[in-house]
């Protein structure tokens, strides 16, 4: 069976000018990502700022052209498809519900936009389909005539979800969809997404920095560090028995609401990962609390979903 | 009161516009009709005024109020048309440069800097001097010269909007690039462009008056405020009002437009 | 005597009530967390204490005292002498409070010499010492750097070190780790907790993150719609939440390992009410499953050590 989405050796390098005469520096934002996801599954992608997860999202959506590799949805290469064909296969939900909706458009027009762009539908049909989708995400027909500024953050995010789903895409890409929302609103949006995923059978990529949220929504989790997946595993397995030292540090830094446990020592030090200066060998070794000399020279082997020297037999 | 300037500007500009539109109703005189018997009759507040001509007459005996009202038409029409011509040129260039970046932007930036290196008044004088004066030519020359600020503002605001998620969402939704430019980008930079439009309109009106004053703008006998000042030049020592009546009109109109522009800019700033 | 005592604080911006009854007491050597969602008035409360409210804000309080000194009649000058000296503040985005035009060292030294006098050299020495204390490697080098040369985590450490320059007794931290990555957040919070116990500071920590609260707070006050609705020692609050809002909030959280994946999260239906100046009573009643007519009256914060503002608790 062909996977719903397949990514092969996806890479993106930027060249950043340095000063007037400096040699342009190469920034490896995404560096050889492989991925295959079966129909209906949800993959959580976690990582910290600067790990390349936003660039990965843009590559998958086709907003950026990859330096290498390709993305295939339902067996078709996205690069080879036109914008309209691509729109029917994959749709995004962005982080900030205040910048993801055009402030000059009414809610109904925002949701109708993908249908209008596809063409071939009468305006009555477009209106009916948009209203139906809005109702599905919990936005009443009465609110459909308002402007985004008149809605709350949670309502705006619902509108963004309706816009993403109105074409019934195969893949939904959520880029930090709840990070800008309050906890009580976040819970509503996560429940809504879960319900829609179940009912529509959509394959979902869920990018987030919040491990608690990812654990709740994902079947499978990929941990991203400096442009690569350093560990990939089924969610339950990853949270029960993390293999990569970076995954362990990430999990340790999740502050669950359990009083008395104090703040754990994650032991990563101050050095921040810099995608314009990716370390040799294992890219995590300068921050790794358990690094051995080999880590700085050799690329780590892939063992059971994790790229780490210590896991080598 | 923060918006006093804005309202004052709108009020004055509205009054002048209404006066220009309804000029035939406000005065029964023909602005072109000469009557050499009553040359340079004085306005109503001076001794010996002709009650038939409220603001007096000019050196050819034409009614000064009629010429002032019809002259407002010339100023406003030339101002608006110039802004339309320069706006279309500048906004198109700015949006294209700001949205596509790269080579396109390099070309746009080059054109903007080239334009900024050209002295507007000198070129306008030269062109009008070479090709002869007409109202259409004035609009074209000014329109082709005054687009730079539109381009600069459209370019920078487009760059800001381009990076916002709703543009990415429109892209991912399958919208074509022209559709994204027209329905996602343009409406969201329009408020900034409105401010530029007022500034450019004031400038265009002043430049038209200057060109007309030099005899290179609209040709006589068209009633233009600049031309009226030029024609009154020889009589300014004994009949100063032939100069300062159109002068004050010009000052008030430009002031009103600038007040409006300032007010708009504050409003736009508020909503950000 | 408590280090900071706020009784019945009210803050209004024009016709909007931002805070309409905040009672917060911070003792020496304790971490008091104020938790709530956006717009609940938690940040405004902290700004009101520091005398940093925006122009046009009206403040009124039953009592507002720092170490027994009444803050209310103080002039701006007297307040600014206290600020940065005996009480210091850390903000969410360090870049807004660090001056981009000066080096880290000169900004830190200036904080010291302005309040305590002394030589610049001594102040710089102290700055270096504090940078080392907040876990910055090569502190001497950092003194000569500009804020933009530092990463987000380092900047926040610099902010903390700067707040400690004059040995404050009270430290107010407004969402100090919200803009940071989770691993850095854990490091910064660990540092704050360490410093707090080591120096015996009173720490007032404002956050929206119940995870942070659970791990660092001695005492928690939950704010909703401008009021403190519940206040209790941390373990007690999480084990035995009384107010319907606190309970709802705790149910909304996905907790790794506690909730079967794919199950529904609890939600709080409805929205925060608009707080006009004549709004009375419980702000949560429109979303509450236990609402009754009595909720429209002013409800006092009752209880001994576990305080709750709810008709059901009386």
From TrEMBL, chain A:
The keyword ATP-binding applies. Residues 5-251 form the ABC transporter domain. PROSITE patterns: ABC_TRANSPORTER_1, ABC_TRANSPORTER_2. Keywords: ATP-binding, Nucleotide-binding, Transport. It is found in: Cell inner membrane. It comes from the Bacteria. SUPFAM superfamilies: P-loop containing nucleoside triphosphate hydrolases (SSF52540). Belongs to the ABC transporter superfamily. NCBIfam families: oligo_HPY (TIGR01727). This is ATP-binding cassette domain-containing protein. It comes from Rhodovarius crocodyli.
From TrEMBL, chain B:
Keywords: Cell membrane, Membrane, Transmembrane, Transmembrane helix, Transport. It comes from the Bacteria. GO terms for cellular component: plasma membrane. It is a multi-pass membrane protein. One of its GO terms (biological process) is transmembrane transport. Residues 72-261 form the ABC transmembrane type-1 domain. Gene3D superfamilies: MetI-like. The keyword Transcription does not apply. Belongs to the binding-protein-dependent transport system permease family. It is found in: Cell membrane. The chain crosses the membrane at residues 6-26, 74-100, 120-147, 189-215, 235-257. Pfam families: BPD_transp_1, OppC_N. This is ABC transporter permease.
Automatic annotation (TrEMBL), chain C:
GO terms for biological process: peptide transport; transmembrane transport. It is found in: Cell inner membrane. Its main location: membrane. The keyword Mitochondrion does not apply. SMART domains: AAA (SM00382). GO terms for cellular component: plasma membrane. It comes from Rhodovarius crocodyli. It is a peripheral membrane protein. It holds the Pfam family ABC_tran. This is ABC transporter ATP-binding protein. The lineage of its organism: Bacteria, Pseudomonadati, Pseudomonadota, Alphaproteobacteria, Acetobacterales. InterPro entries: AAA+_ATPase, ABC_Ni/Peptide_Import, ABC_transporter-like_ATP-bd, Oligopep_ABC_C, P-loop_NTPase. GO terms for molecular function: ATP binding; ATP hydrolysis activity. Belongs to the ABC transporter superfamily.
């Amino acid at each position: 069976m062909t996977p719903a989405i397949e990514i092969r050796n996806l890479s993106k390098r930027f060249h950043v000018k340095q000063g007037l005469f400096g040699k342009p520096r190469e920034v490896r934002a995404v560096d050889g990502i492989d991925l295959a996801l079966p129909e209906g599954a949800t993959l959580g992608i976690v990582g910290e700022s600067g790990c390349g997860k936003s660039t990965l999202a843009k590559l998958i959506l086709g907003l950026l052209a990859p330096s290498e590799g390709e993305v295939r949805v339902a067996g078709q290469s996205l690069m080879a498809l036109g914008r309209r064909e691509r729109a029917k296969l994959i749709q995004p939900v962005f982080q900030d519900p205040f910048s993801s909706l055009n402030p000059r458009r009414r809610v109904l027009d925002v949701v109708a936009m993908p249908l209008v762009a596809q063409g071939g539908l009468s305006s009555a049909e477009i209106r009916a389909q948009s209203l139906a989708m809005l109702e599905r995400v919990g936005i009443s027909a009465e609110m459909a005539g308002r402007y985004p500024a008149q809605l709350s953050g949670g309502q705006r995010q619902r509108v963004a979800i309706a816009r993403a789903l109105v074409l019934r895409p195969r893949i939904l890409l959520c880029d930090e969809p709840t990070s800008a929302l309050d906890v009580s609103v976040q819970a509503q949006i996560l429940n809504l997404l879960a319900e829609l995923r179940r009912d529509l059978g959509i394959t979902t990529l869920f990018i987030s920095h919040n491990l608690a949220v990812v654990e709740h929504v994902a079947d499978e989790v990929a941990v991203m560090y400096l442009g690569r997946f350093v560990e990939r595993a089924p969610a339950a397995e990853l949270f029960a028995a993390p293999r990569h030292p970076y995954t362990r540090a990430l999990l340790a830094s999740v502050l669950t609401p359990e009083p008395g446990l104090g703040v754990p020592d994650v032991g990563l030090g101050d050095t921040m990962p810099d995608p314009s200066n990716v370390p040799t060998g294992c890219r995590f070794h300068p921050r790794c609390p358990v690094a051995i000399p080999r880590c700085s020279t050799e690329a780590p082997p892939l063992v059971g979903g994790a790229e780490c020297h210590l896991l080598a037999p | 009161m923060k918006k006093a300037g804005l309202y004052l500007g709108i009020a004055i500009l509205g009054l002048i516009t209404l006066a220009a539109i309804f000029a035939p109703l406000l005065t029964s005189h023909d602005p072109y009709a000469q009557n050499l018997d009553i040359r340079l009759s004085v306005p109503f507040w001076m001794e010996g005024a002709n009650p038939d001509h409220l603001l007096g007459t000019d050196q050819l005996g034409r009614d000064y109020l009629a010429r002032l009202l019809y002259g407002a038409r010339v100023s406003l029409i030339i101002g608006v048309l110039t802004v339309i011509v320069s706006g279309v040129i500048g906004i198109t260039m700015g949006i294209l440069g700001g949205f596509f970046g790269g080579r396109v932007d390099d070309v746009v930036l080059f054109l903007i800097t080239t334009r900024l290196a050209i002295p507007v008044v000198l070129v306008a004088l030269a062109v009008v001097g070479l090709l002869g004066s007409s109202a259409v030519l004035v609009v074209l020359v000014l329109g082709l010269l005054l687009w730079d600020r539109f381009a600069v503002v459209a370019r920078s605001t487009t760059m800001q909007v381009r990076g916002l998620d709703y543009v990415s969402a429109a892209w991912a939704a399958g919208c074509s690039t022209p559709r994204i430019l027209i329905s996602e980008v343009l409406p969201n930079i329009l408020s900034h462009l409105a401010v530029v439009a007022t500034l450019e309109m004031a400038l265009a009106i002043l430049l038209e008056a200057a060109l007309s004053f030099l005899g290179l703008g609209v040709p006589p006998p068209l009633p233009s405020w600049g031309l009226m000042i030029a024609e009154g030049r020889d009589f300014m020592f004994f009949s100063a009002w032939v100069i300062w009546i159109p002068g004050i009109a010009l000052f008030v109109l430009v002031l009103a437009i600038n007040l409006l522009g300032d007010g708009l800019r504050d409003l736009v700033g508020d909503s950000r | 005597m408590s280090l900071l005592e706020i009784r019945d604080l009210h803050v209004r911006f024009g016709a909007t009530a931002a805070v309409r009854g905040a009672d917060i007491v911070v003792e020496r050597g304790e971490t008091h967390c104020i938790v709530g969602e956006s717009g609940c008035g938690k940040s405004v409360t902290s700004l009101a204490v520091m005398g940093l409210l925006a122009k046009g804000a009206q403040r009124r309080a039953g009592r507002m005292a720092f170490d027994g000194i009444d803050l209310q009649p103080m002039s701006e000058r007297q307040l600014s002498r206290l600020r940065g000296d005996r009480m210091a503040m850390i903000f969410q985005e360090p870049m807004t409070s660090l001056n981009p035009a000066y080096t880290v060292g000169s900004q830190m030294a200036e904080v010291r010499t302005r309040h305590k006098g002394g030589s610049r050299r001594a102040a710089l020495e102290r700055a270096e010492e504090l940078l080392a204390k907040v876990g910055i490697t090569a502190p001497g080098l950092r003194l000569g750097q500009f804020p933009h040369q530092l990463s987000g985590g380092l900047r926040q450490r610099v902010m903390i070190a700067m707040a400690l320059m004059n040995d404050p007794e009270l430290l107010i931290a407004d969402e100090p780790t919200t803009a940071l990555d989770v691993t850095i957040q854990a490091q910064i919070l660990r540092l704050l907790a360490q410093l707090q116990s080591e120096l015996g500071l009173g720490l007032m920590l404002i956050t929206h993150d119940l995870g942070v609260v659970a791990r660092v707070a001695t005492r928690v006050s939950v704010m909703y719609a401008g009021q403190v609705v519940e206040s209790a020692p941390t373990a007690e609050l999480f084990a035995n939440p009384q107010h319907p809002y606190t309970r709802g909030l705790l149910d909304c959280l996905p907790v790794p390992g506690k909730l079967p994946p794919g199950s529904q999260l609890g939600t709080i239906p409805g929205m925060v009410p608009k707080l006009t100046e004549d709004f009375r009573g419980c702000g949560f009643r429109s979303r509450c499953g236990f609402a009754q007519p009595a909720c429209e009256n002013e409800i006092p914060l009752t209880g001994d050590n576990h305080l709750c503002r709810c008709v059901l608790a009386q």
